[in-house]
């Protein structure tokens, strides 16, 4: 193959390659607010399924589900962020994430889409509260005057009784 052919192939490949500045996130909604979680942490998104309550569990834990033979703890994102609880709807989803050595389900109102966010445009969230939920807020992303709250649930174990 000639040099021009190699250059054309290299140019096509670079058009397909993902820019290093972009990070994939899964966006979801709780009420009127949009949140996003790093897609690298997300295993899958499930339709709402019956959740078995666990007596004596922490206030934000809805219970457990059986996911292909594995027990997965499900938390209510609304409760974690101090929002009023709602009954699930046909849009409700459970985002299954992997955190260190365990899998966690996060109940959200609606999963919106997988989006690419420019890591240089992510701003550190202002310290607005001493509330336990603030530990899950990683930052904010402002796009077209619409704020998206970036979350990371890897510190959820800090809320569990020891």
What is this structure, in a nutshell?
With 162 residues, the protein is mostly beta strands. It is built from two helices and eleven strands, in the order H-E-E-E-E-E-H-E-E-E-E-E-E.
Topology, element by element:
Blueprint: H1 3-16, E1 22-30, E2 33-38, E3 42-47, E4 61-67, E5 70-76, H2 77-80, E6 93-99, E7 102-108, E8 110-118, E9 122-123, E10 137-143, E11 146-151
Describe the structure.
The structure is a single chain. With about 160 residues, this protein is mostly beta strands. It has a single domain, classed as CheA-289, Domain 4 (OB fold (Dihydrolipoamide Acetyltransferase, E2P), Beta Barrel), CATH 2.40.50.180. Helices cover about 10% and strands about 45% of the residues. The chain has helices at about 5-15, 75-80; strands at about 20-30, 35-40, 40-45, 60-65, 70-75, 95-100, 100-110, 110-120, 120-125, 135-145, 145-150. The strands form two sheets. The chain has a six-stranded mixed β-sheet, with no helix packed on it. It is globular and about 45 Å long. The protein starts with a helix and ends in an 11-residue tail after the last strand.
Radius of gyration: 19 Å
Given the helix and strand composition, which structural class is it? mainly beta
Q: What is the makeup of the main sheet?
A: 6 strands, mixed
Strand content: over 45%
Q: Unreliable runs, pLDDT <50, ≥5 residues?
A: 1-17
Count of the domains: 1
- CATH-derived topology: OB fold (Dihydrolipoamide Acetyltransferase, E2P)
Give the name of the CATH superfamily. Answer: CheA-289, Domain 4
Treating each run of at least 4 consecutive H or I residues as one helix, how many helices? 2
Q: Give, in spatial order, the strands making up the sheet with the most strands.
A: 8-1-2-11-10-9
Nearest-integer average pLDDT:
84
Any idea what the CATH architecture is?
Beta Barrel
The run of helices and strands is HEEEEEHEEEEEE
């Amino acid at each position: 193959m000639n040099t021009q052919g190699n250059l054309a192939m290299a140019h096509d490949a670079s058009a397909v390659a993902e820019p290093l500045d972009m990070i994939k996130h899964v966006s979801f909604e709780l009420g009127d607010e949009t949140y996003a979680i790093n897609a690298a942490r997300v295993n899958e998104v499930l339709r709402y399924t019956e959740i078995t309550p666990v007596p004596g569990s922490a206030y934000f834990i809805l219970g457990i589900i059986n996911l292909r033979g594995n027990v997965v703890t499900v938390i209510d994102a609304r409760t974690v962020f101090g929002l009023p609880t709602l009954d699930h709807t046909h849009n409700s989803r459970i985002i299954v994430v992997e955190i260190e050595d365990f899998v966690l389900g996060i109940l959200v109102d609606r999963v919106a889409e997988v989006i690419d966010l420019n890591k240089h445009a992510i701003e550190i969230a202002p310290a607005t509260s001493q509330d336990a939920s603030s530990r899950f807020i990683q930052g904010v992303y402002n796009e077209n005057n619409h704020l998206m709250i970036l979350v990371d649930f890897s510190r959820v174990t800090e809320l569990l009784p020891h």
